[in-house]
Amino acid sequence: MRKNLLKIAAAGCALCLLCTTVTYADPFTENREVTVNVTGVKIDLNNPPDPLELHWALMGIDSADMKGHWAERLFYWATRHNIIEGYPDGTIRPDQPMTEAEFLKTFYRPFLAALTVGKDWTESLYRHASSWKHPVSGGNNTELRHAPISRRKAAEIIAAAQGVRYSGDDAIVYLLGNRLAAGKTDATLEGFAGDDFLTRAEAVQWIRTLKLRGMFKIKEAPEELSDPERLPALLGKAEEELPDFVYAPVTIDDFHFTDMDGNITFELGATKESIDNRYGDPDEHLDFLQLDVYGSLSVHYDANGKMEAWNVDNFTHQPKPIRTHKGIVVGESSLSDLLRQYGTAGMENDNILSYMYETIDGQPTPRFTAKEIIDKNNAIILSFVVNEDTLKVDYMFCSRYPYANFDFLNSN
Length: 412
What we know:
Residues 58-121 form the SLH domain. This protein has helices spanning 3-16, 51-58, 72-80, 100-108, 122-131, 142-145, 151-161, 169-177, 189-192, 200-212, 272-279, 335-342, 401-404, 407-411; strands at residues 22-24, 34-36, 257-259, 264-266, 284-286, 291-294, 297-301, 307-313, 322-324, 352-360, 363-366, 379-386, 393-400. By secondary structure, the protein is α+β, with helices and mostly antiparallel strands. It has two domains: 30-230, no CATH class; 252-411, no CATH class. It has an eight-stranded antiparallel sheet with strand order 5-6-7-8-13-12-10-11.
């Protein structure tokens, strides 16, 4: 279980980094250096580029192709996670229809460690589709693999990946009723426009929605059609969604934890003595991670014996009755609770949600990249692991940035 601290801290730091090929010195010091390992990209730190512009430049993508497009932020997310890629000529072509093979590649990528690349790049995709019993058209017809895919056919494949089998309009109803995809105009069959070809931007939007709904694995579809009586009702009007790529407001209290049995709150900076008084001597000390373990609660103390990081798990112990200031409890709170309480910006491409803040004048300020941080000693990472099956919170972690960034390893 303790491996999860490494995983979650690394995820928090991954959220901080725009691209590993760019190394910024603190832009608020006189040492303003930058290393860019991409041919032809020039950056003037006296006039720093927009993060999106920098991202496109590093990827060799013509930003004019995406500038101002409604899906630009979605493509920033998707290209960072290798869900979709640009074309050799440096374009993204967000409004271009996808072929069935392109859709499978984009849809399967977030869930597979690797897709085999061979003489025919589509073969691996269709082997997976066959093993999962997904209703593709190009299984035995290579020409259909490279034909544009309709929104209806894409809906059938997505429904199948949920472990059900619906065809035609039933697949659309399944997606709309479960809020797994959006219609073009409204949440009706007509508004879904199933006969229209699926564009690259629409595909990325759907995949992002699936992630926010908690799709972390692909399922095998049944052989027989699923019961249409179990389809959800359509409301006709799309429900209001949480805004994407945003942080919800937090206060400094949101980095503390509360013992619900004693209604005692422990702040970051609480003394080891106060925590030992509450929970007794630690069960064990993990030297490598410099953690004192109190059952399901683990705490890292700084050199002065003050709490610098804490985490609570739901893996190997009966969880202690601990909650965050916003009421998140391991084993009880859900993915949707996290998104409502902390925002959608923390959702990247797996079941770990990470949020980064810097405290300025006593108020936590969201930071989307590490280069935005003025003083790393005032930065804090708040992260959660969600169970892939139940979508309940299995793990929560709060740490000052230096510990989450493993700075303590460099100081030894």
